[in-house]
Amino acid sequence: MTNSHWTRLIRDVPGFPKPGIVFKDIMPVLADAAAFDDAIEALAAPWHGIRIDAVLAMEARGFLLGTPLARALGAGIVPLRKPGKLPGRVFTQAYALEYGEDALQVQADALPPGARVLLADDVLATGGTLLAAHGLAKQLQVEVVGVSMLIELGFLNGRARWDGDAPLHAALVI
Predict the structure, then answer these.
(1) Which domain of life does the UniProt lineage start with (predicted)?
(2) 1 has a pLDDT exceeding 50
(3) Cα separations (Å) of 163 from 127, 131, 144, 158?
(4) Res 97: pLDDT
(5) What pairs with residue 91 in β-bridges?
(6) What pLDDT does residue 24 have?
(7) Neighbouring residues of 78: CB distance < 8 A, sequence distance ≥ 6
(8) Could you tell me the residue ranges of all domains in the chain?
(9) Which of these is catalytic: 41, 71, 98, 143?
(10) Active site residue 152
(11) Of 55-59, 65-69, 159-163, which gets the smallest average pLDDT?
């Protein structure tokens, strides 16, 4: 199966979650086993052979991709959650997104300092969520070795806001 198969399954949903936004629905990709496998391999491909201790996956669709991505890379998974979802001491990073404001949190003891991590999510839009994830990685004192996004909305120029030294990979640029 080629990558074009999984990319054709992505649906546009106009007006969700609010008017003016065109939501990229990846659920049909997840529901098709072969397409899901291809999408995960497209996310993992640049990182094979690179030591990655954990994937930091952004809530919520990032969890659906980050978990099998971590498994494909022989790494652990650390969820970056919305406020109030994690027990214990947490680090918090606020951010702006294309339709409002939000924050992500990570457990303060999720990883030892110096761990090598890959940031992962479903869509790179304006870059706010990615910058928040990077801010949490800094608070954890871990090394970001890369970023893997399923879809990059190139017209929103989120890549230009990436302030990390690590490479940013998008499996599909729209």
Answers:
(1) Bacteria
(2) no
(3) 10, 7, 11, 11
(4) 67
(5) 106
(6) 96
(7) 54, 55, 56, 57, 106, 107, 110, 111, 117
(8) 51-173
(9) 98
(10) no
(11) 159-163
What DSSP letter does each residue of 41-84 carry, written as one string? HHHHGGGTTS--SEEEEETTHHHHHHHHHHHHHT-EEEEEB-TT
Mean pLDDT, residues 25-39: 97
pTM, two decimal places:
0.95
Spatial strand order of the sheet with 76-80 comes to 76-80, 54-58, 116-124, 143-152, 168-173
Q: For position 100, what pLDDT does the model report?
A: 73
Lowest mean per-residue pLDDT among 32-36, 65-69, 163-167: 163-167
Q: Regarding the domain delimited by 51-173, which CATH topology (the fold level of the hierarchy) does it fall under?
A: Rossmann fold (3.40.50)
Mean pLDDT across 142-159:
97
Residue 81 among the catalytic residues:
no
Sign of CA dihedral 160, 164, 169, 172: negative
Q: Report d(CA 168, CA 145) in Å as an integer.
A: 9
Those residues whose C-beta lies under 8 Å from the C-beta of residue 5, and which sit 6 or more positions away, are 34, 35, 38
